[in-house]
Amino acid sequence: MKVTYDPKADAMSILFYPGKKSTRTEEFEPGLLADYSGKTLISLEILDVSTRIPKKSLKDITFSLLGKSKTYQLA
Q1: 6 Cβ contact partners less than 8 Å away, ≥ 6 residues apart
Q2: How far apart are CA 66 and CA 26, in angstroms?
Q3: From CA 48, how far away is CA 70, in angstroms rounded?
Q4: Which residue in 57, 18, 49 sits closest to 33, CA to CA?
Q5: pLDDT per residue over 22-62, tens digit each?
Q6: Residue 12: how many CB atoms within 10 A of its CB?
Q7: Neighbours of 41 (CB within 10 A)
Q8: 8-22: pLDDT as tens digits
Q9: Ramachandran quadrant class, 63 (left: phi over 0; alpha: psi -120 to 50; beta: rest)
């Protein structure tokens, strides 16, 4: 998994399968997009992140997947 944050675009990308090509994009709500390869979710993109997540939290993000937590520093 790869997580990036672009402060100029105020966008966060969460790539579950880096390098895999998207076959379709679905917008769940304004500014929240999911990319799929076939039926497999391969990435999420969150726009206007600073309005959704407090700025102090944007330096480090912690995810819990399958009962294991990992903290990522965003570039």
Answers
A1: 12, 13
A2: 24
A3: 24
A4: 49
A5: 999 999 899 999 999 999 999 999 999 888 877 666 666 66
A6: 21
A7: 13
A8: 998 988 888 888 999
A9: beta
